[in-house]
Design brief:
alpha/beta, two-stranded antiparallel sheet, 7 helices, binds orotidine-5'-monophosphate
Length: 220
Amino acid sequence: SFDPMADHRTLFLQLALSVDALRFGEFTLKSGRVSPYFFNAGRFDSGAALAQLATCYADAVEAAGVEFDVLFGPAYKGIPLATALACEFARRGRDLPVAFNRKEAKVHGEGGMLIGAALEGRRVLIVDDVITAGTAIREALGLIRDAGGVPAGIVIALDREEAVDPAVSRRSASQTVAQEHGLPVVAVARMADLLELDAGNVPGVPHEALQAYRAAYGCE
Ligand code: OMP
């Protein structure tokens, strides 16, 4: 039978549920919004889990056809994600440079805020965990431009597809970032995929609470 969800979406959501990276309850987000679900990329805390997650990211990036020269993982959550993705691309025959930032400026030693490959003059793909209001992604774009890099796109595991101010606009934060910066925002899975998976009756997923949250804050 026809599966309307691309493989990497289903695989990622099932993987996230199995390692408890996707949890349900009551969570206060960075934006202050109270959400019935939370995605914690820190639960991908073993080599095997990170490797499987990286295959999902790589499949999503390849399906989207984004062109870039270097991977960038924003501190902290993006660091293992970009690194694991670089390993996965190498396994697929493409050895890509990878870089990340530190959060605290270092005054001794090598100094600077960036670690790893140079960004200057290169097309940079940001690798991060989740987008809600887009604040974290905007910060990463600033870091890359300050280092002379050219942002080429963003890949995240989960697009929560939330409108920043639903009373003003129902456009999602990811759509807004994509339009403002003229960049592709690639998500391995989206809130809509979670609801679709849920429609298949996954135990423990509070369908009505998720639907209500999406009706209140989701993009159209
Ligand atoms: P924005 O900066 O609002 O896009 O939120 C993204 C950040 O919020 C992530 O990098 C996390 O630090 C955190 N977050 C999660 O990790 N998982 C979620 O499900 C939701 C959030 C959040 O606070 O919105």
